[in-house]
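Tutorial sheet, problem 5. The two components below are modelled jointly, 630 residues in total.
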Amino acid sequence: MKNRRKTAILLTALLAAAVTCALAVGSESLSFFSLDENQQAILYEIRLPRVLLGACVGASLAVAGAGLQALLRNPLAEPYLLGVSNGAALGTMLSFGLFGSIAVARPAFAIIGAGIASAVVFRMAKSRSGMNVERLVLSGVIVTTFLSSIIVLLTSLLDAARLRSFTFWLLGDLSQATYQGFYLTLIASIAGTLAIASQSRALNLMMIGERDALDFGVEVKRVRLVVFTAASALVGASVAASGSVGYVGLIVPHLLRLAIGSDNRLIVPFSALAGAIFVVFADTVARLAIAPRELPVGAITALVGAPMFIYLLRRS
Amino acid sequence: MIVRKFVFTFTIKSAKLTAACCLFMAIGTFGCSSARNSSTAPGSRELRDDLGRAVRLPLRIERAVSLAPNLTEIVFAVGAEDRLVGVTTYCDFPAEARAIAKVGDTQTPNVERIIALKPDLVLVSTSSQLEAFADTLASRNIAVFVTNPTNFSDVMKNLERLGELFGTQAKAQALIDKLNSRAALAEEKYAKRSPVRVFVQISKEPLYTIGKSSFLTELLTRVGGDVVTKNVETAFPVLSKETALALAPDAIILSDSSDNTEPNEAFRNSPAVKNEKVFRVNADILSRPGPRLVDAMEIVGAHLNGITTTPNIK
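Model answer (structure tokens):
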């Protein structure tokens, strides 16, 4: 109990610090005590929406990861590795093609894409004897590669200029942040997090085993539906706003479980905080590393995440 | 994402490579005898390409394939278009280039189709992807000449070399003189004016622009432009929007393409947008290091110095 409080305070303080730092630094230095017109625009129109969106995306992806890992009883279940992100990316591209500039169509299509991809992976991974790690990871790889090839096919139909912007976006890029994108992501982020948090008791029981959970009166099918839908919404909205920022859903919940154990009532809300910290921090690095040029934030998260994935794979 | 993407492209590439290897082996076995028989050309010469490779060429090039739109433009400009038998899908200028057989695009040319066209020479602008099939083509007596002009003086040198290659030196030299004098005229015209702080927007999202090593930076400087990103590393960097906003350029050149028809939001309050100094320029003219670079100089120079007949966009 005491520990939980400490962690909550620590994470909140860290998030506040990360956001403050992220707002304070950038390719342009601002004199905060006397902002001129341009500096105000830089702070409020460029930096602030980007940091807010980054926090939202980080929280969403980490919560989606935590939910999927608990549901599938598998520490390697991660939206990106399961192909859910690619489903969302394909959805976003289709909405670009079909509806162009309609902003709401993008997250809507992305969420549908993420939902279909996760349903397919789940079906493929399930066998009569239940679900095992290898089958799940393999299904994820297959769906991811299949969707990647469709994305490659689609991009080859684009002209060179559009291709360039899509490539950057696909790697996970927050530079295109707007308040509109932030609000849309925020709505999905809050709804998805609440939905998964509401299932955390049931998820705790399901982590012991689906049969045991059934014995305790958990409606396994309903929990599964809620978590999959919520994860798809979280991932879909994030991808629509910022492309595929990989590995957040993998390393954030895992590190938290190492620190405070695997009670999902804690892991889910803390994942939201820690995920936000991680992406805000990673994006600050992406903005500063080669300033005034930019790196896609997905490159930074993958740089940290991929070695972590190998480590987890060796442990499991 | 990045890891996955790399793994993915790697698989595709290795699959392609395997397929290509099989193809080459097949050609190797079946093609050996014919290659030997036909290799006794009456005379040949040797020229060094941009990679420093000694390329053996027949005395007269009868059939050539160009694998880049700027090289196609150069071949036309030096008056050797009648010997161009294959070009890429990107090669759309001059209009006559559209009628020439297509051999795929610059990144993924179709080797089979190139061989089927029986060229004596293939002009290549990128060395990396093509090293693999240069040997195959060489074994079929098809010379691969790598040349990659990246700035104005390169283009001039290139015109000269391709003139030499095709034996149209006189026409090439006349063109070089004309282009040089047009460039000098444009330069002189705008030299006395005070430079205009200009931003070149290659794409709106992400914000691609031109940097230190782009030929456009050099070119714009010559016609009265003070390129605001002239100190940014690389040729075509993605620029931070905060920096873009802080740069507050007085003029913006948009490389005209479907998703780059207006300035990025970061420029909303810039003098360029406020004073309607935003100009769309044909992306092909801006992006191809070929003879039309002088057109680019003249067009941009006229825009920057307010002597322009094309209307601004708002």
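Marking note: The domain at 192-304 of chain B is CATH 3.40.50.1980 (Rossmann fold). Full credit if you identified this.
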